[in-house]
Amino acid sequence: MSSAVVSTSAAYGRPFVIDAENVAEVCPPSGAGPTEARPPQRAFSISTFKDARLASVTSASRLAARPTPEMVPSGIAAMDALTGGLPRGCLTEICGPASSGRTTVLLAALAAATQRGEFCAVVDASDALDPQSAAAAGIALDRLLWVRCGENSPQKCLEQLLRVADLLLESGGFGLIALDLGDLPQPEARRIPLTTWFRYRRAVEHTSTVLLAIERHSIAGSCSSLLIKLGPQGHRIKESAIPQLAALSYAQLLTELEFTAELLRSRLERKPVRCAEITFASKTAWAG
After folding, report:
1. Which of 55, 133, 219, 240 has the most Cβ atoms closer than 10 angstroms to its Cβ?
2. What angle do CA 175, 180, 181 make, to 5 degrees?
3. Which residue in 62, 81, 63 sits closest to 73, CA to CA?
4. Helix (H, G, I), strand (E, B), or coil: what is residue 65?
5. CA-wise closest residue to 78 among 44, 104, 39, 97
6. Domain spanning 77-287: which superfamily?
7. Over the stretch 246-284, which tens digit does the pLDDT of each residue have?
């Protein structure tokens, strides 16, 4: 009886050669006699299957570049000069501590979007939006959907925000959707898994919606296409115009706040982001 030649797993890429004469003796077919032999088997190679599988894979050099998303004005000229605007179909993070200009950027973006005739939505986790300030900033309130998370527990507020965000992204039709997590405790905000942010990014990827996340610190990781960090810069005050209060040293009116904005991440261009920083101001309503 002749021996069959079979390669082992250690000989990766070498052909398996099976002696047709011994196939009937080792593995006889069901119902066949001991003298019957199977048809001769042709040798095959693992490398053949490997090459066929790789042939269907497109090399990275032949991949088409992802088109640059449409950019829309943020409502702040200095911010647009820094980032080029807010990208549609992308997630943008605006982060910074309290009194760093987060609300100023949010109101400016909403005002610019509603003035373009778009409908917007704000999911307010802490019920912090002031309608009078929104109207004074130029927001068309009849084009704004304000979702107030009224639960007392931060955890329940966060759960409400995530559920509402899913519904808004699935419904579509909004030019801008803002998730305001700025006043949530940081441990609660960091409980949002990265898979949720990835799902949000995929939900707006092929739409004209600007998804804006307002936070204390960046929590979306690599899922955000644009990351802007805000910080306080200074303030301006003037003496009170009321005669009875003019003699009091503490009777002063705050007229303007100055902020800085730093671009930390931009996935809209293939070249690395340069460290850039700009300054913008927010005037009070009584400053004229």
Report:
1. 219
2. 145
3. 81
4. coil
5. 104
6. P-loop containing nucleotide triphosphate hydrolases (3.40.50.300)
7. 566 666 677 788 999 999 999 886 555 555 788 988 887
User: CA torsion 266→270→275→278, rounded to 10°?
Assistant: -50
CATH 3.40.50.300 location in the chain: 77-287
Tokens standing for residue 144: 């704004």
- For residues 149 and 126, is the Cβ–Cβ distance under 8 A? yes
Give per-residue pLDDT as tens, 61-103. 555 556 789 999 999 999 999 999 999 999 999 999 999 999 9
Which residues on neighbouring strands pair with residue 276, listed in sequence order?
Answer: 263
Cβ neighbors of 25 (< 8 A, separation 6 or more) are 1, 34
Tokens 């340069």: give the residue. 274
Which tokens go with 17? Answer: 């050669």
Percent of the chain past pLDDT 70, that is, above it, reads 68
From 45-54, 122-131, 149-158, 214-223, the region with the lowest mean pLDDT: 45-54
What pTM does this model have? 0.73
* Cβ proximity of 194 and 223 under 8 Å: yes
Terminal C-alpha separation, the chain? 105
Q: Report how far apart, in Å, the C-alpha atoms of 102 and of each of 12, 49, 234, 241 are.
A: 59, 56, 15, 30
Distance CA 144, CA 140 (A): 7
